[in-house]
Design goal:
The structure is a homodimer. Chain A is built from seven helices and five strands, in the order αββααβαβααβα. Chain A is an alpha+beta fold. The longest helix of chain A is centred in the N-terminal third of the chain and has 20 residues. Chain A is globular and about 55 Å long. Strand 4 of chain A pairs parallel with strand 5 of chain B.
């Protein structure tokens, strides 16, 4: 665990210290062939509570990006899915999956090191998913086709939830 | 395991059979308080290889949506992060995190049962994240603020990857 002073504004070298942790974790797993050069760390009240990296190849899990792994780790550490007040550090600009995960986790502050262009230069392209959302997602059937089915079955399930459960998260 | 005939087009009742599996799984975990009424199934060559549901509350994991859980499960079953040729069934229209996960997994066909509007009616709102992407993400600092830091450290990591590793996924 690394403790940093609790202040509203952190110094540049403090940000870099945390980013270095993410970077070192990414280097370790990258060299083991677990995934790309992507690391992430999560900080709460000046304390690093999660450091993780991409493990897509090792875990056979296309969702195992560094940011998602760090969010999962932080959720376990804090015992909640709500990471309000935490900041996330990532060696690369988050892809839309990770950005959405960050938003679901209620993380409001993200520090990134390398740009999407720099990720693209080493072969990783996330921008096609950003473009999919920006251009109106249903208009790109080559990327993913959506169709509706089984509505009668599932709407009953939704209604049961509304009737019996209150927790919305 | 449920086996369905290998055909290019499946009958409506076959789609509904699979959606019912997703729905039943969601009902079970919903009643246990694990998460919302969201289930998902993944089918490859007419075989159901994964059935999962939302476990955000149980796992303290904001990324544990039904679709993400099903993708993780299918990846483990097949021993790869690449789910090309699979179709995904979801009781609700996928949120941007799940839609991105689907795209990363190379799943091209998605069947959903309930609409975003129906999810909203029972208290679940995903559209603010869709709007975030559609409206130009950096323009909504209240949702998430991004800043660049630690570039010098991480660009070296990216360059090392480009030099020593070839696998891009």
């Amino acid at each position: 665990m690394i403790f940093l002073p609790r202040r509203k504004t952190m110094r540049t070298d403090e940000h870099e210290t945390i980013m270095r942790l993410a970077s070192e974790q990414a280097r370790t797993t990258m060299e083991q062939g677990f995934g790309g050069p992507f690391g992430a760390a999560i900080v709460q009240d000046g304390k690093v509570i999660a450091v993780s990296s991409n493990s897509v190849l090792k875990d056979h899990d296309p969702t195992a990006h560094a940011e998602v792994n760090a969010i999962r780790q932080a959720g376990k550490v804090l015992g909640t899915h709500d990471l309000s007040g935490c900041a996330l550090y990532a060696t690369g600009y988050p892809c839309p999956m990770c950005m959405s995960a960050i938003i679901w986790a209620n993380i409001k502050t993200v520090y990134f090191a390398c740009t999407p262009q720099e990720a693209e230069r080493i072969g990783f392209r996330d921008d096609f998913i950003y473009r999919y959302f920006e251009s109106g997602r249903d208009k790109e059937p080559k990327l993913v086709r959506l169709a509706q089915t089984g509505h009668d079955v599932c709407i009953k399930l939704f209604e049961e939830y509304a009737k019996n459960h209150q927790q919305v998260y």
